[in-house]
């Protein structure tokens, strides 16, 4: 199979997010992690050099990895049909 462009990968992830087969807890996790990333209330405040941003990045990456692994079958199906 040919490599997918970045735009097509994002599109597949979006369709996986709005797909009915995607478990609700995964969707909630992604939304909450985005809100955590933009929220001024953090475990480590953003004014601390480097550490303040690292907790935001860690939460976002963790939720992205869980979402990515939790939607493998859905993404494979979408890759063939999108």
What report would you give on this structure?
The protein has four helices and no strands. The protein starts with 5 loop residues before the first helix and ends with a helix. It has one domain. The protein has 82 residues and is mostly helical. α1 crosses α4 and α2 runs antiparallel to α3.
Q: What is the count of DSSP helices, taking H or I runs of 4+ residues?
A: 4
Mean pLDDT: 90
Helix content: over 70%
Question: Number of folding domains?
Answer: 1
Total number of beta strands: 0
Cα Rg: 15 Å
Task: Let me know the largest β-sheet.
Answer: none
Strand residues, percent: under 5%
Amino- and carboxy-terminal Cα gap: 14 Å
The secondary structure category is: mainly alpha
Task: Write down the overall geometry.
Answer: elongated
Write the layout of secondary structure elements.
Elements: H1 6-18, H2 24-38, H3 51-70, H4 72-81
Helix pairs in contact: 1-4, 2-3
